[in-house]
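Possible race condition, two jobs.
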Amino acid sequence: TQLNSVGSFTAQQNLAMALYSRRNARLIDGMQEMPRTQAEKIVTELGMDTAILNKQMNSLSGGQRQLIAFAMATLLI
């Protein structure tokens, strides 16, 4: 993993993992329950195209991975 993300997961799956990591939910439940609109809002606010949500983390540029990691960290607060 890089920047506390799972490289083989999509950006959306990584965001969902961060969102649900503090709850008593199985990881797969969290990934399925994160609304697409919520994930789109997060990346849009960071100035990224929503198409990034479907890409695996290990295929993103270093800057894109950092932005997703930042978003994941803010979801943990």
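Job #2 (started ~2 s after job #1):
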Amino acid sequence: CDIEAGSRMTHDRLFRIMSSGKPITGVALLQQIEAGKVSLDDRVSRFIPELANFRVRVGDAARPPDDTFGTISANREITARDLATHTSGLNGFLLDIPPTVPFTLAARVPYARNLVLDFQPGTRWAYSAVTGPDILARIVEIASGTPFDRYLHERIFEPVGMRDTAFNLSEEQRVRVVPRYGRQGSAWQRVPGDVELADRLLPRTGGTNP
């Protein structure tokens, strides 16, 4: 499973489940809905006041996101439903965060206020790879009063026997993670930036991360 090291796959190696984490976040959200703590129609600002007002990009949609563009005010606030159905207009990673800000959902999710929406909330579908799910995770933290990683461990992973699944890995688990490869011609090459991508993803916790 590690071409450079010449090691073989074993039954205890760990795989990054990538966007399969979104259904897990969805389960946590549904649990909080069943508990009466969250409604799909709740405005995000009910839980995170900083995310009440957004600007929406206008102009040529084919232009690169970092190109100069105009903006207008969003017609309405983003809701939990928008986030859960990928119709919020949010995309990309959180930006413009000072390096001194703790690397947690609680500290960093409010910086989503700096993002410009790709379209008016609820008007289109577009896959939100990171930001939308991170905001939902923070909503679950607030509604449940439990850091998201601990919530998943106690309420989802442990009850169904997923005892080797986590957002934040222990050092023992880290050494068992399988590296990612992509096919280049006739050879498998390690995916460039794989480690860097993992470092850009927020640990889903309200506390200190390893």
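The CA atoms of residues 16 and 97 lie 26 Å apart.
Logs attached separately.
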